[in-house]
Amino acid sequence: MASITAPRRVIHPVHALLLGSSFSLFLGALLADWAYSSTKEVQWINFAAWLNAGALVFAGLALAWAIIDFFRSDVGRDRNSILYVLMLLATFVIGFITALIHSKDGYATMPAGLMMSLITFLLVAASVWLGFSTLRSGARR
């Protein structure tokens, strides 16, 4: 006899792309900040600012997707999906604050820019983990 399990939600490929892109761009911003703190080459802080801005675009789109998906009537809501939306919101807000810090002069950016990039990366890593653990790929609807 086949076991009956509750259907799980399938992650949409575009949503997965948005999550993965924000993860990799925030990681790039963190690495560029680390390179700037090691070398004091001003171009690294410019790279970090642009990578952070690109990551905010993808994170904002992923957040909008998650909010719309959360309020859809045919999707069940649980504690993990609420936590996922809140974690993406925190990632976007802290990432925006990081972008404001990166808008300063290169010497004025450190060490706050590096610490904020680290916090933002940890938040996006937790968001991606929550997103892929609550939205199972390959499951049936």
Automatic annotation (TrEMBL):
Top-level division of the source organism's lineage: Bacteria
TM region positions: 48-70, 82-101, 113-132
Residues annotated as domain DUF2231: 12-132
Name of the protein this chain belongs to: DUF2231 domain-containing protein
Pfam families membership: DUF2231
Keyword Transmembrane helix: yes
InterPro entries: DUF2231_TM (IPR019251)
Keyword Transmembrane helix: yes
